[in-house]
Amino acid sequence: MITPHAISENWFQLSDGTKLYHEKGSFATNGKEYNINAILWLARNIPVTQMPMSELSWICPEDDTGIDEVRVDAADINIPIIVHYEDAVGWVIADGFHRFLKQWRAGLRSGNPYGGTCSVKILKHYPTEEQSIIGE
Questions:
Q1: How many CA atoms, within 13 angstroms, populate the side-chain half-sphere of residue 115?
Q2: Max Cα separation, the chain?
Q3: 48 near 61, Cβ under 8 Å?
Q4: How is residue 68 annotated by DSSP?
Q5: In terms of pLDDT, which residue wins out, 22 or 134?
């Protein structure tokens, strides 16, 4: 078994040297809730690719009601967004909404909100119930 060792509030290092980001929270879609750490675990070895911002444009809010501006300001857009494709709606952000919103707003200020790309990791599936236990 690989044992995690805390190296800061949100970072753990496994006995094999792998560093993992860890946070509290969950992601919900289609009436089902997933542990965010299970999603981060599944995405850890997925290669980063580029996705047009326009693929995620439906997620952008029409106004800033309910947006945690502190999280948007602090978001590190160098960390890839984790996405998954759902037949009913298209691409969904499983992790990285605030990072995406920060990048999208930067595009608005430059007059090109959907013309750019963002770095993503594409999940093929959501965590199973057994995988959702990770990090709880």
A1: 7
A2: 50
A3: no
A4: -
A5: 22
pTM: 0.75
CA dihedral over 88, 91, 96, 99, signed as positive or negative: negative
- Please count the residues of the chain: 136
Torsion sign, CA atoms 79, 134, 39, 41? positive
Tell me: pLDDT of 70 over 80. Answer: yes
pLDDT tens profile 35-66? 777 888 888 889 999 999 889 888 887 777 78
The type of residue at 66 is: G
Amino acid at 90: G
Q: Across-strand partners of 35?
A: 26
d(CA 128, CA 93) in angstroms, rounded, equals 18
